Amino acid sequence: MLPRFCYKETYKSGGPVQDPKSGAVVIGSVLAFVLFVGATNLKAQSDEMFDKAYPFIGNWDTEIRSPEGQDRGNCGGRLGDYAEKLLNCSMPVDQLPLNKRGEAWLKYMDARQSPSLAECAHLAIPPSLGGGGFLSAYTNRIVIDTPDPSGFLITREIWMDGRKPPEAGVLFQQGYSIGHWDGDDLVVETTNFTFDPDGIDDHLHMASSVRKKVTERYHLIDENTMRLVIMVEDPTFLKKPFTYALLEARKPGGLIPIWRACDPDVARREVEEGYAGNKYPEDNQK
Contact 48/244 with Cβ under 8 angstroms? Predict the structure, then answer.
């Protein structure tokens, strides 16, 4: 039955009589108005998305592999499993505010447990952010494709349509990314991560917990230079949020096409036979 306000009342001898035909006309008019407003808002959102996202679309490189490129970060004088000096961590480790649990993790962790090194697992963010990536844009999301050292392509979807992240307990290795515009800057907040033994830094093998939150701010310095400011929060392993930045340069074309493959058995043997460090040699005794 139609609500009262949707009826036209006419009068006969006994009093007002409700006319459902006019109610249908009213509802149709309201629906048409809502559809018109919705379409107008969608077009406005699409136009804004295009205007703001277009300058970011393209292939971005941190140039860490170039002899003249930037150093992603130092390893803070940390040592590997056979006391070798670690190099080229994905962030400035000397400033990383590890708490006692974080320090205890590093004493426990070794390269043979690293999922990205020995098990072909993808890197998560923030470590994967050090390699740059190809940025594409759609009406409701931004997609970043990043080549992963494990031999695969990491694809991240950043939702720009105002949705909320999933409820606690719904977890993803790459987390769940929600983006918005702050002026002309792209700001991305990612939560809902799984526990990851390499989740803060893969060279250091510093873990991250399900409480990790990563905030990225992409700022165009000019049409070919972008600053990426990264803030990592993880109360399980960090005393406080940690912020650092990377510069990225626009490169022509897209991702370099190469053959990528990774076999966990082979990767594991390479770590065991090709890396001298072994914190737990008794595990290999038969």
Answer: no
Domain spans, the chain = 59-274
What are 228's strand-pairing partners?
218, 246
Query: pLDDT of the chain along its 286 residues, tens only?
Result: 444 434 444 444 444 444 545 555 545 555 554 445 444 455 555 788 899 999 999 999 987 665 565 666 789 899 999 899 988 888 999 999 999 999 999 999 999 999 988 998 889 999 999 888 999 999 999 999 988 766 678 899 999 999 999 999 999 999 999 999 999 999 999 999 999 999 999 999 999 999 999 999 999 999 999 999 999 999 999 999 999 999 999 999 877 666 777 888 998 999 999 898 899 987 655 4
Residue identified by tokens 């033994």 is 197
Positive/negative CA dihedral, 156, 194, 229, 44: positive
Residue 139: Cβ-neighbour burial (10 angstroms; 0-12, 13-18, 19+):
middle
171 within 8 A of 190, measured Cβ to Cβ: no
